[in-house]
Amino acid sequence: MKLRNLLTILTILYFVNLFLYSISSLLDLEDISSYFWFFRIPILIVLYLSATVKRSWVYLIGLLFYQLASVFFFTGNPDYFVYATFCSVLFKFCLVLLILDLITKKNRLAIGFAFLPFFVLYLYVIEMVVDSLGDTYYIWIINALLTSFMGGVSIIYYLNDSEEDGFWLLISSILFIIQIAAFFINKFYVKSEGIYQMVILSYGISHFTFYKFLILKEQRK
What is the pTM of this model? Predict the structure, then answer.
C-alpha cells in the first residue's frame, strides 16, 4: 500500500511539474520554467526505480542521454547543437533496444511496411529545414529512422496483441513522432508558442507512457 501511494504521489508530481513547465514557458517566465524543465527526467527516473522490480540499465542510460540532449538544446548555443542531436539519437537507440524483443519472424515484414510512412514523412520535414541542419543532417536521418521504426513496431505489436502494455507503447511512439515533427517546424521553420507547447506536452506524456509500457511489460513476464 505504501509503494502504491508513493507511485501515485510521484506520478502526480511528474504531471504537475509538466503542467507548471508548460504554463511558465507560455508566460515567458524563463528562470522558473528552467527549473521545471530540468527536474522532469529526474522525477521520472525516481518513479521508474520505485516501480520496477527488474531494473533496466538501458532505459536509465537512455534517460540520461535525453537529459544531456535537453541541456545542450536548452543552451541555444549553435556549437552544442551537434552534441544535442547525437545524444538524442543515442536516447532513441536505447528505446529501440528495449522493444527489439517484440519483433518476431511473423511480424518483420508487417513492421517494415508500417514504419515506411512515418519515415517518408520525417524525410519530408527534414528536407524542409535541410539548410539549417548542417553537419547534423545524417544524424537526424538516423533519428528519424529509429523513431519511425518504433512507430512501426508499436502499431504491429498492438494490432497482434492488444494488451495494455501495447496500448501505452503505441501512444508513446505516436507522441514521439509528433514531437520531432513539431520540434523541427518550431525551431527551423515557423516560430510559434503553440507548436512549442505541443513539443513540451507530447514529449512529457510520451516519456510517461513509455515508462508505463516498460512496467506493464515487466509485469506480464
Answer: 0.90
